[in-house]
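re: ur question from yesterday

yeah so i grabbed the chain u mentioned. its 154 aa long if i counted rite. heres the sequnce exactly as i have it in my notes:
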Amino acid sequence: MTTRLRMEPESYMKYGSAEDRLCIADLFSRYAWGMDRVDRTAFESIWTTDAVWTAEGVDIHCVGLAAIMAYFDATSATRVPVPGVGGCVRFCSTPIIDFSDADHAASRSELVAFRNTGTAVAPYSIGYYEDALVRVDGRWLIRHRTMVVNPPAA
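ran it thru and got these structure tokens back, copy pasting raw so excuse formatting
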């Protein structure tokens, strides 16, 4: 006879379901897709209206969705959609997610970005994200993203 062990969830998993975790991972993929393909709709869809986005190392400080999208629009002219030469692809590690209740979570994840130089794919940046997440109308969104990046030396 086989005995199945019943494991009680750890306290940090008390609220977050597997579906919640997948939705949050999808949120981070939409962030990368929006930035790397210069897809405004995808990028805009991940933030709350009162979101804050800061980035150490690249001087970003945006308060509110309008400011975040103004930054996105202002920098879109200099970004090349992937797979074009000069385009960038960023990868986010599997996030560590801590739920404070059913509708609020904090996440930490690492990032690495690569740029198409035309002759090679070269590392562009490394760093990490720290996020405050909230469920709004059934969807997980970023309320506050702190990004710490270290662009490699030229």
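noticed a couple things. Residues 18-36 form the longest helix (19 residues). also Residues 23 and 95 are 11 Å apart (CA to CA).
anyway ttyl
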